[in-house]
Amino acid sequence: MNKMKVSAIQLNLAFDNPDQNENKIEKKIKKTMETFQPDTIVLPEMWNVSFFPDDIQKNADQEGKRSRAFLSRLSKMYQVNIVGGTVATVYDDQYYNSSYQFDREGKLVHTYHKVHLFSPSKEQNKFTSGHQLGIFELDGVKVGIATCYDLRFVEWIRLLALADIEILFIPAAWPNPRASHWEILLQARAIENQLFVVGVNSVGTTDKLTFCGHSLIVDPFGEKLATSKNEEVILNATLDLKKRKVTKEQINVFQDRRPDLYKQYRM
Ligand SMILES: O=C(O)CCC(=O)C(=O)O
């Protein structure tokens, strides 16, 4: 595959209401399939309940079964890959911020549990952290996923880049007043790792947070392919996968790295 068409769905999620959120997402997916016909659709963080109800036990998805069935049905129906944002899940009485990915046949190809839990919102008091890198393939293209706060952890994202992913998906529930951090970090991760970055945020408010939107699709040179403000919107972009090679021919940071030295200072 030389090009991948991506639709990133920036949503104003209903708080603690999976029914309403599923209805809305289904309509948005239908719309982008009828207009842009993407290869891959990307959703934001914790789209079943928004980020995040105090009584998470009420609507956390039991082993992700409901969300997986929903995403699988849509990916199969429209024959589209879905990077399913994240949902609040519960496995054996432990809560996770979980992400499920589906191929065009509706098959689950990968599961990622958010690794860096957002301590300013006390996410670690409710949720259990994942411990595995998010790497998988869509249409034969090696891609990666990390969730929201994970974006700040340059070491974690570098591991994905060193595994040679071509596209990094970042579902988020990134709040004000840090829209500039979100945008700058998405661009920085794209530039320093020479890969495509698709950052998909929410808009709207909860009792505690206002999400800043500004979802963004960036190419390996750091150029913005699609931008948004803070309203509900579908961002569309065609990722020309040759751009990574072209960028590396100009500046090959992966060839010029000095891991032999970095090892000495590892902390
Ligand atoms: O890092 C930030 O500023 C926001 C992170 C966040 O909201 C999250 O991980 O849910």
- Total beta strand runs: 16
**Overall pLDDT level:** 97
Name the overall outline: globular
| Low-confidence residue ranges | none
Number of domains: 1
By CATH, the topology is Nitrilase/N-carbamoyl-D-aminoacid amidohydrolase
GO molecular function, one term: hydrolase activity
Family: Belongs to the carbon-nitrogen hydrolase superfamily. NIT1/NIT2 family.
Pfam families: CN_hydrolase (PF00795)
InterPro entries: C-N_Hydrolase, C-N_Hydrolase_sf
Structure overview:
Strands 1, 2, 3, 4, 5, 6, 7, 12, 13 and 16 form a 10-stranded mixed β-sheet that branches. The model has no long low-confidence stretch (mean pLDDT 97). Helices cover 29% and strands 30% of the residues. It has helices spanning 18-35, 65-78, 123-126, 154-162, 179-193, 242-250, 253-256, 259-262; strands spanning 3-12, 40-42, 61-62, 81-83, 87-91, 94-102, 108-113, 134-138, 141-145, 167-171, 196-200, 202-205, 210-212, 216-218, 224-227, 233-240. The protein is built from 8 helices and 16 strands. The protein has a single domain (3-265), classed as Nitrilase/N-carbamoyl-D-aminoacid amidohydrolase. Strand 6 and strand 7 form a beta hairpin. The structure holds 2-oxoglutaric acid.
